[in-house]
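Our consortium's second objective concerns turning raw sequence data into structural hypotheses that experimental partners can test. To show how far this objective has progressed, the report includes one record in full. It was chosen at random from the queue rather than selected for favorable results. The single chain below, 112 residues long, was entered without modification.
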Amino acid sequence: MFVSPLNSTINVTAGDIVSYLLPKILDADNDTFSVSVNLGQAFTFVKYDGIKLRISPKANDVATKSYPIAITLVDGNAAPKSMKYIIQVFVFPFLNFTTKTTPTNNVSKNRS
């Protein structure tokens, strides 16, 4: 099982890049373990490299529903045990706006 809780939801804005490092894995019996990741429909913008998820959605990935990613841990015991986790990835649209500069606020936000 993971040593610390796994995020059940990840929110990301189209155009951003988010890296999510999976928590360390600990087996109570010190068995070996395997990790399988099913990216589902998120395969077009999520990559798994063995220790982290790299999430980089584009505008066409914005959806009203989540993209579930299934992670399964299986220990190498003669009677293997498994744990399944689901991370829901929500992709939101980038809202392009610029704040006007005023005498009291010299801050301008923009995204290129």
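The partners drew two points from this record. The radius of gyration is 19 Å. The chain has a mean pLDDT of 84. Both points have been shared with the crystallography group to help prioritize constructs.
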